[in-house]
Amino acid sequence: MSTFTIRGDIDVPETGTSLNNLIFNYQSPDRTRAWKVIRARIWVADWDSPSPGADKAGMFGAVLATDLVSVGWGYSASAADNRVFGWNQQQMLTRGTTNIFVPQGGMNPQADFILDSDRIITNQLYLNTTNNLEGATSTTTIAYLIELEEVKVSPENAIILQLKGMGQDIDN
User: Fold this and answer.
1) The domain that contains 66 carries what CATH number?
2) pLDDT band at 135 (very low <50, low <70, confident <90, very high)
């Protein structure tokens, strides 16, 4: 099957969230096409930290979802919500004397998402992010790179997969 990538940037408000960023939307009567996320990566592209002189630390998190998440999602990394199938959390550090941005543990080990290998996308793919970085005064730009592989499914299976990916968390 064929693979392709989706990439881009998302601005996340200072110590806030950026929810329900639609990064893939498939609309067609052909219900035999679906996609599996085979790799997802995310990293900080630009961290607004205008006050050098002190070491600063922070974290951001992200989840991939097949449906809208509730506004109350906040900083959750819970696996209880059926819409969510990919998770990432990262710690960051800037050195005050040089204002050099350093991912804790290195960029590559932190960039990869934990992915539920049993999730197939039949409609939408959303990226949700949180930002809690000391010293940020406006926005943090987070970059992403998602690799998808096309899979063939029966129309009947596509309906089941679509239902599986919808919000079924009865509390939200």
Assistant:
1) 2.60.120
2) low
